[in-house]
Amino acid sequence: EHLANLEYANAGLLSHLSLAFWDQDDPYDMGGDHCFLPGGNGKLVQALAENVPILYEKTVHTIRYGSDGVQVIAGSQVFEGDMALCTVPLGVLKKGSIKFIPELPQRKLDGIKRLGFGLLNKVAMLFPHVFWEMDLDTFGHLSDDPSRRGEFFLFYSYATVAGGPLLIALVAGEAAHKFESMPPTDAVTKVLQILKGIYEPKGINVPEPIQTVCTRWGSDPFCFGSYSNVAVGASGDDYDILAEMVG
């Protein structure tokens, strides 16, 4: 489970992580206990976005930049400014979904290539009632097969903060990649089998979920993955390179 947890924390296969720098951000971790926010982490984003004009359904495909400013092009619309802060996921930059004119400096392209952008998927399940222990925020599942160590290995309970009996199963490592092509019904069936294996021996019935959602971050054209990691050959300096101004 420890190996699966590392692959979850880094959204990447252990074999792809830099042995020297995989944990380079540990010194910046905040102290104290972890907690769930009532209403979800989206509350933070909503607060930050208050009074900020946001345009939806505008897919940017080209960014022109130079000493006289920048043009951000989405379809037939052109947005002009003195500068642009590009915060698209690293997976989008790796995929080349946005064309930069002129091309980004080689130093920045190399940094984009070196850093890893991994995958973590989830299955969210809303049940008719809470059948697990109410005082549990998380609980785990160990697989008999080491090659499937990241398959639904960790469960998050949001029952106390989401306003309903919500349970989320995590899929990390190699299992997260296989999950991308797994039919949602098969995924939910596997999760339920695991939950029944945990609770039915205790005499607790596991009901069918009312609603389920399976993420597919790897195939999402606006992400192509979940979050970054320091891959073999990369270092924390590559994050600074990505943040450097150009133009």
List keywords for this structure.
FLOWERING LOCUS D; transmembrane; 2 domains; FAD/NAD(P)-binding domain; four-stranded mixed β-sheet; Flavin_monoamine_oxidase; Amino_oxidase; alpha+beta; 247 residues
Structure described in brief:
The chain folds into two domains: 132 residues, Alpha-Beta Complex (Polyamine Oxidase, Chain A, domain 2); 72 residues, FAD/NAD(P)-binding domain (3-Layer(bba) Sandwich), CATH 3.50.50. It has seven helices and eleven strands.
Tell me the Rg in angstroms.
21 Å
Termini gap: 46 Å
CATH class of the largest domain: Alpha Beta
Would you report the number of β strands?
A: 11
Given the C-alpha coordinates, what overall shape results?
A: globular
Class based on secondary structure composition and strand pairing: alpha+beta
Strand order of the largest sheet: 7-8-9-6-10
Helix content: 10-25%
Number of helices in the DSSP assignment: 7
Largest sheet: 5 strands, antiparallel
What order do the SSEs take from the amino end to the carboxyl end, as H and E?
A: HHEEEHEHEEEEEHHEEH
Q: What name is given to the CATH topology of the largest domain?
A: Polyamine Oxidase, Chain A, domain 2
How much of the residues is beta strand, in percent?
15-25%
